[in-house]
Amino acid sequence: MFPNAVRLQPEVGVPGSRASMNPISVISRLAQTPVNVAAFVWPGTDTDNQVTNAGTGKPLGFAVRDESGIIPNYLQEYSMQVPQGFPVQVAQRGEFFASSAANVASLGQKVYANYGDGTLSFATSGAPSTNANITASTTSGSNVLTVSANTGANIQVGQPISGAGIPAGTYISALGTGTGGAGTYTMSQNASATGAGVTVTATLNVETPFVVERGGAAGSVIKISSWSDLA
Question: Considering the domain boundaries, does residue 154 fall inside one?
């Protein structure tokens, strides 16, 4: 295997790896579907044993690099994915390297987990990302949300939603004909009113116990910690 790039300085670490020798708290689960490491996970269908990279509410933890690597594809150089049915080590406490793929990470910011894929983003506490560019219709007593337009981020399973006729605490529980934009989606609760042209707001991510301890530009390797007093 020959290198295809040369760096003047090594990276500070590999996303998903421990970033210090401070105590960690890790639980073991199985991948219900292929799970990406260095991303957050939620309980799967078997809540006591399985995890996935998508969910609603608080994530179970951060999937870490603590297993032998598996490279399933011919000539693939590396993989950060755990195949279905294989063990996943889920960190609930500790200090780890991660990737700031979504946006710039600054020292002291809280780490947020995307409901749809477990990827990380960063902001001040109590400031999750939202998409208020969804136009939809509802029918009283029905759990079907019919989206006619979405000019913001993709609608994904697990995202909490709000709007006229949508009860508090409702989230997207399944995709219908929609795959992120216009189409139908299943809500976790029935609509309380019938409406057309309803402006719906979706919450895209959820705050986690982790804090940025070493920031960086988008795409760089950063350090996150659940032990920090910075937040």
Answer: yes
- By the 8 A CB rule, do 129 and 68 touch? no
**Minimal CA–CA distance to 226: which of 25, 16, 17?**
25
Domain containing 179: what range?
130-203
pLDDT in tens, 69-124: 677 777 777 788 999 999 999 999 999 999 987 789 999 999 999 999 999 999 99
| Total structural domains within the chain | 2
Residues 105 and 217 in one domain: yes
3-class secondary structure per residue, the chain: CCCCCCCCCCCCCCCCCECCCCCCEEEEEEECCCEECCCEEEECCCCCCEEECCCCCCCCEEEECCCCCCCCCCCCCCCCEECCCCEEEEEEECEEEEECCCCCECCCCEEEEECCCCCEEEECCCCCCEEEEEEEEECECCCEEEEEEECCCCCCCCCEEEECCECCCCEEEEECCCCCCCEEEEECCCECCCEEEEEEEEECEEEEEEEEEECECCCCEEEEECCCCCC
Q: What's the pTM value of the predicted model, to 2 decimals?
A: 0.89
**Phi-psi category of 57—alpha, beta or left, where left has phi over 0 and alpha has psi -120 to 50?**
left
Please tell me the distance from the alpha carbon of residue 173 to that of residue 13, in angstroms, as a whole number: 36
pLDDT tier for residue 165 given thresholds of 50, 70 and 90? very high
